[in-house]
Amino acid sequence: MSDVYVVGADLIKFGRYPDRTPAQLGAQAALLALDDAGLTVHDLDVVYAASSYNAASMIGQQVLKQIGQTGIPCVNVSNACASGATAFREAYIGIKSGVYDIALAFGVEKNPKGLLGGPVGNGPSPEGLFGSGTTPAMFAEAGMVHASAYGTTLEQFAQVAVKNHHHATMNPKAMYQIETPLDVVLASEMIAWPLTKLMCSANVDGAAATILVSERKARELGLGRAVRIRGSALASDPYNPRNPALLDADSVTRMAVGKAYEMAGLGAEDLDLVELHDCFATAEILHYENLGLCGDGMAGALIDSGDTALGGRIPVNVSGGLLSKGHPIGATGVANIVELVMHLRGEAGARQVEGARIGLAHVLGFSTIAGVCGVHILEKV
Amino acid sequence: MLSPKAAHAVVQIRDSGSPWLRGYRCGHCHAVVLEETLCCRACGVRDAPSAVSLSEGGQLFTWAVVHRSFPGVVTPFVSAIVDLDDGLTLKGTLRCSEPGALHAGQAVEIVFDDAGGAKDAEGAPYIGFHFELAAGDEA
Predict the structure, then answer these.
(1) Whole-number pLDDT of residue B138
(2) pLDDT at A121 over 60
(3) What is the CATH number of the domain that holds A31?
(4) Rounded Cα–Cα distance for residues A312 and A224 (Å)
């Protein structure tokens, strides 16, 4: 079977777009990715469209109404924060299988404002009566498991936000370009202890898109800026006795990344950069260990070492991550891949990871009752 | 007087009006889950787990102190995740005077309550629960 390549990748600047529809934002990203690939809508065989909140309204077809209604198949995907990675993976599978030669995979979201998460079921609202179903509380609880087991400190969690906000100052498409020193992070509004506001992802609108092609088509177009997909994995939250009372970010991530490493024939030691799902600062700490960037219990020491900052041994979230670039739910899984492509091409500007050859993108999706993880490994050709 | 209703899936109410905690235990692998399922979620055996009465005591596994919640929800409060003694992990609100002194492994007990005084459309009251630190294990 042929390898699958990414030949187009781009995103719109993440922010608030009160006067634009999700379809307009998605279309804008799709056109950017087509331009990046030197292709037009008439070249596409299929569209895989991700939007956690808009898949049911056929966001893929809506985008084609914006950019050209050619009649090609659209698959609309909603899979929480892993929607984008799921759409990208379906495009990969469609091409790998030989059914298609050229696919557009995009993600778009106009996020609801305020806290995400929320009550399920009948009767009085459970929020406050039976703990909290807000996402900050869920990731604070998960972080406190790590703190209780390994002595991870509030300052270590906060350093994740310091690092990622710093990285975003070099990303013109990030929501924020603001340095946030440790004292600023710690002094910002307490949302769900130990998470302050600057340790929570930026709730924004956004869209990102990629063009995937078969090996035959990649050679025809020229491999100069093509990036090869080495691993693609998706996992659903496996049984765990505390699931779903406790958000289990760990098992599902370890399942997905294990499959992706196996498929790629690579390990954590081979990675040059990682874009992981820092929806909250605690999550990045958990995922250092889940992705094998360090041993269990060593994530606090890893953030302290500076190894995950730009210029370090294994830079993590040089885009600014969800904390500062922003987290438009359905777009995030594609945006993480776009970031990798930019680095593997050597086109990431001030935040370029020098000599990057292998990158890993990870997203974790959760509701109060279920979870999903997507992992992709990309390689410079 | 209208009969009380359960405010949470784990709460069951006897004919006498007294509440108890219900989970479902797999007869094959003994996993305990909150919701009734067709097969066992843990081992996949095609025998539905059976309803069982759960312990009203357990240990604090992890928690968050919630300072910002949805509009109208009174904060701060402690969102706690507790391992019940004979199986099932349950999320609930932990009422305690010193959240800053909490630590994993503390003994907690279930206290049934009136779910904040909530009433349904007909005016029937609810029965809910919260956690408290067990006597001798206060923070």
Answers:
(1) 66
(2) no
(3) 3.40.47.10
(4) 28
Domain spans, chain B? 5-133
Model confidence pLDDT, tens digit, residues A57-94 = 999 999 999 999 999 999 999 999 999 999 999 999 99
Q: Compute φ and ψ for A122, nearest 5 degrees.
A: -95, 180
Q: In this structure, is residue A191 part of a structural domain?
A: no
Position A370 in a domain: yes
Q: What is the pTM of this model?
A: 0.96
Look-up of token digits 């599902």: A252
Mutation target to probe the B interface, by most B beta carbons within 10 A, among A115, A120, A122, A130 is A130
Residue A118 is predicted with a pLDDT of: 61
Q: Which chain B residues touch A367 with a CB distance below 8 Å?
A: none
Report the alpha-carbon angle A317-A319-A324, nearest 5: 90
Asked if A137 and B92 come within 8 Å (Cβ–Cβ), the reply is no
Q: How far apart are CA B16 and CA A221, in angstroms?
A: 76
- Taking contacts as CB-CB distances below 8 angstroms, the residues of chain B near A130 are 7-8, 91-93, 128-129
ipTM score: 0.94
pLDDT of residue A223 exceeding 80, the answer is yes
Query: Does the beta-carbon distance from A128 to B63 stay under 8 Å?
Result: no
CB-based contact A140:A282 (threshold 8 Å)? yes
Q: Which tokens is A360 given? A: 């890993």
Task: Report the 10 Å Cβ neighbour count for A106.
Answer: 34
Cβ of A131 within 8 Å of Cβ of B6? The answer is no
pLDDT recorded at residue A369: 87
- Asked if the C-beta of A132 comes within 8 angstroms of chain B's C-beta atoms, the answer is yes
Could you check whether the bond before residue B76 is cis, i.e. omega within 30 degrees of 0? yes
Spatial CB neighbours of B133, under 8 Å, sequence gap ≥ 6: B94, B96, B106, B107, B108, B109, B139
Instruction: Give, for A302, the enclosing helix (H) or strand (E).
Output: helix A299-305
In a domain, A284, yes or no: yes
Rounded-to-integer distance, Cα A32 and Cα A45, Å: 18
Put simply, whether B115 touches A (Cβ < 8 Å) is: yes
At residue A119, the pLDDT reads: 54
Contact B61/A126, CB-based, under 8 Å? no
Q: Using alpha carbons, select from A46, A116, A57 the residue that is nearest to residue A87.
A: A46
- Whether A200 is a known active-site residue: answer no
Q: Give CA–CA dist B65/A192, Å, rounded.
A: 5
The residue of chain B nearest to residue A135, with distances taken between CA atoms, is B69
Q: Using the beta-carbon criterion (under 8 Å), do B5 and A123 form an inter-chain contact?
A: yes
- How many structural domains are present in chain A? 1
A81 in catalytic set = yes
Instruction: Determine the pLDDT at residue A5.
Output: 98
Residue A279 predicted with pLDDT over 60: yes
Q: Tell me if A216 is assigned to some domain.
A: yes
- Nearest-neighbour CA in chain A from B33: distance (Å): 8
Question: Which of the four pLDDT bands, split at 50, 70 and 90, describes residue A120?
Answer: low
